[in-house]
Amino acid sequence: MEKRVLGSVAAAAVRHSAVPVLTLGHGAPVPAPPRRILALQDFSDEAQRAVHLARTQFPEAEVEQLHVLPHGTATGFRSPRSAPYSLLPLRRQRRLMESRRRLEALGGGVLLEGDPAGVALARAAAMRADLIVMGRSAKGIWEGLFFGSVAGRMVTLSPIPVLSTRRR
Length: 168
Known about the structure:
Blueprint: H1 9-16, E1 21-23, E2 36-40, H2 45-57, E3 62-69, H3 88-105, E4 110-113, H4 116-126, E5 131-136, H5 141-145, H6 150-157, E6 162-166
Parallel strand pairs: 2-3, 2-5, 3-4, 5-6
Antiparallel strand pairs: 1-6
């Protein structure tokens, strides 16, 4: 439970800081300049700033953008029961195509489906990333109380350093 409640110094820094915050897993050594960076892309201004920061601060590093469509959002319906069954494949295909188009417009990247934090951590491990960068925006009081957001889960669960940026 301790990792889920936003009471730690690191969590508060990520939540409130107007400057980028680098978080390291417990006992992790201070990282060397990264060679491979996974940039989480949700098409927000904050995510684009994080990608820009990674590319300008670490110009020698390979930066891979990752966009993850959460299960359920690929169809546009929260629950398969809320939609006519025949529309699900078409809606899913449209969402995937739109996400692919947006990702290509930003220079390309990887498009996957699933739990965003879980998929991102698996992708970071698979590509042997040295750093994960992400933009985050305040979501409201619930995010302030619990680490349920993608950003919160990345910071608490990642064995890889996470650089979080936030617009103030």
